[in-house]
Each structure stands twice: as structure tokens, then as C-alpha cells.
Amino acid sequence: VQLQASGGGLVQAGGSLTLSCAASESILSFITVGWYRQAPGKQRELVASIIKGGARNYKDSVKGRFTISRDDAKNTVYLQMNSLKPEDTALYYCNARQNLASANSWGQGTQVTVSS
Predict the structure, then answer these.
(1) Is residue 75's pLDDT more than 90?
(2) Residue 41, burial from CB neighbour count under 10 angstroms (0-12, 13-18, 19+)
(3) How far is 116 from 110, CA to CA, in rounded Å?
(4) Tens digit of pLDDT for each residue in 5-20?
(5) What's residue 73's pLDDT?
(6) Residue 44's pLDDT is what?
(7) Which of 30, 86, 99, 103 has the most C-beta neighbours closer than 10 Å?
(8) Dist. CA 39–CA 89, nearest whole Å
(9) Distances, alpha carbon 109 to alpha carbons 14, 38, 93, 97, in Å
(10) What is the DSSP annotation of 29-77?
(11) 40, exposed or middle or buried, with CB in 10 Å at 0-12, 13-18, 19+?
């Protein structure tokens, strides 16, 4: 599957952004879809994911501020980010995994910059 991420930008602290990840095929049966981020000099980390069956996982620092959702009719995963903080600044990647035997698929990344 090919993933196309979009929606990043520059926003002031306290602002909001919505990221979109469009998949080239149906992700309805994928075991996991989600968003990761990588700040300069840091490792890539999981931000939010949806597991097959609907359970959602969030990084502790974004709980209550970020919401992951999906539109299976559009093969798209979203990340609604509210109350953004400067520490949320990073390159955000969407991720999808079809099954346990498949490799992770990654989008190209979209930059989110939060100014103080």
C-alpha cells in the first residue's frame, strides 16, 4: 500500500491542525494504521494508532489533545491535533500494516511546526 500524508504546517501554540493519510487501497482489514513522529535528534515514536477492531492507542503526552480517526470509504486516516505545544513539533508519518506477515508501510512525512 502507498500512503500520502498531508495537512502539516506552521501553527501557534494552542492552535489546531488536522493531518490526513490517504491510502492507495482499502485499509479496512489492516491490523493497524496510525501516526508516528520524529523530532530532530530524536527517535521516531508512536503518536496514535487504530488496531483492527477499533481500539485506539495514544502516546501519553497527546491524550486528550489528539484524536485519530478513519474513513474507510475514503481509505483515509486522520489525526486531529488540538492544543498544540512547541514540543509537538516534528515530522509526522502515517503508517499501516496489512497483517503480521507484512512489513510496515510508511507515508512520506508531513512537517508540523508549533511556535511558542
Answers:
(1) yes
(2) exposed
(3) 20
(4) 999 999 999 999 999 9
(5) 94
(6) 97
(7) 30
(8) 7
(9) 22, 9, 4, 16
(10) T-SEEEEEEE-TTS--EEEEEEETTS-EEE-GGGTTTEEEEEETTTTEE
(11) exposed
Query: Which residue in the block uniquely carries the three cell numbers 491535533?
Result: 81
End-to-end CA distance of the chain: 37
How much is the CA Rg of the chain, to the nearest whole Å? 13
pLDDT at res. 100: 87
Q: What is the rounded CA–CA span in Å between residue 5 and residue 11?
A: 18
The CB-side HSE value for 61 (13 A sphere, CA atoms) comes to: 10
Grid coordinates in use for 77? 486516516
Distances (CA, A) of 64 to 23, 29, 61, 104, 108: 26, 27, 9, 27, 26
Q: What is the pLDDT of residues 19-73, one digit of tens each?
A: 999 999 999 889 999 999 999 999 999 999 999 988 999 999 999 999 999 999 9
